[in-house]
Amino acid sequence: MKVAFFSAKPYEEAVFKDAAENGLDTANTQDPISFSYFPHQLTAETALLCQGYDAVCVFVNDELNAKTLAILHEAGVKHIALRCAGFNNVDIATAQELNISVSRVPAYSPETVAEHTLALILTLNRKTHKAYNRVKEGNFELSGLLGFTLHNKTVGVIGTGRIGQAVIRILKGFGCNVLCYDPYPNEQATQDRASYVSLETLFTDSQIVTLHCPLSEQSYHLINASSLALMPKGAMLINTSRGGLIDDKAVIDGLKRGHLGYVGLDVYERESELFFSDHSQDIIQDDIFQRLLTFPNVLVTGHQGFFTQEALREIAAITLDNLRFFAGDTSLNVNNNMVKHIN
Ligand code: NAI
Fold this sequence. Notes:
Blueprint: E1 2-5, H1 10-21, E2 34-37, E3 55-58, H2 66-75, E4 79-82, H3 92-97, E5 101-103, H4 110-126, H5 128-136, E6 154-158, H6 162-173, E7 177-181, H7 187-191, E8 195-196, H8 199-205, E9 208-211, H9 225-230, E10 235-239, H10 248-256, E11 260-265, H11 287-294, E12 298-300, H12 309-326
Parallel strand pairs: 1-2, 1-3, 3-4, 4-5, 6-7, 6-9, 7-8, 9-10, 10-11, 11-12
Helix pairs in contact: 1-12, 4-6
Bound molecules: 1,4-dihydronicotinamide adenine dinucleotide.
Residues 85-86, 107, 110, 113, 158-164, 181-184, 212-214, 216, 218-219, 240-242, 266-267, 303, 305-306 line the site of 1,4-dihydronicotinamide adenine dinucleotide.
């Protein structure tokens, strides 16, 4: 089976090659998997490279819209293996019409993203990024580094799936009160001593709000002028989920008015034009992104929540299982990795 691997980075290639060397790509299938690694994003333009491939392996910012899917279908591609959890970048209805199946990696070390969420909270709060630079320059002045104690603070967790639950467990370890909201409440969250409340109460009562729900029509711009107005003055907003959950202009307005106290982002709505590449020599044209970076109380990381050795190895192993399943190894129990309505 031939797989075109898009948005390939050297660190991923190394992990996938290592998994392949350990035989993970051939077990129980007659048809070994061979990857071609393309550094380009998959778009309607680059989809033309897929002639003769059985499947594509893609990441968060590859564009699998109706136009790209039509070209993939024409080229003979029958499967899309996402090497991430979210699938908001795939037009699922069109994929279904074209009989292209879609798999993803729904759960790889949720603690990985949860720990990055805490890294953002703690860095923003205790300003370790600023302290690091000061101390390097021999400046041991503490003014401007004042933080707050996390213990006893109320944190609102939106989305109590795998990552949300891992965040709750860590926050409880810090002695926080945890409020949570999810249209499908999960017993595990209550066992972990978080309390389900309405979205409105969560916004009103939380000093920190952290997002762990997928991007969908319902959750698009969940953080907007109205929800921000409910949050207490000086509150912290954290997003390690998907950029489209936040209306950036409303966030900038909240920051300018001093209403929002801290913002930590690992994702950004138009990140596909920026993230995962070196733009240090470019003039960045996205004025909203650039404005966000000017605030002293905003911390942005470039979608690295998933980026640990353990998570990369798990992603590779599960993606290979999904591809082997597609190649005919039905002994694998990966049905839950197939995106709803497909296959
Ligand atoms: P999950 O599927 O286990 O949990 C998502 C939860 O969100 C579910 O309980 C669902 O009921 C809930 N939900 C759905 N719509 C909602 C809404 N409108 N409001 C509140 N809750 C809602 O997903 P998991 O593994 O916890 O991942 C969460 C998100 O994290 C993913 O969708 C993905 O966008 C993001 N992610 C980010 C990564 C990063 O590197 N920064 C890496 C992996 C995932």
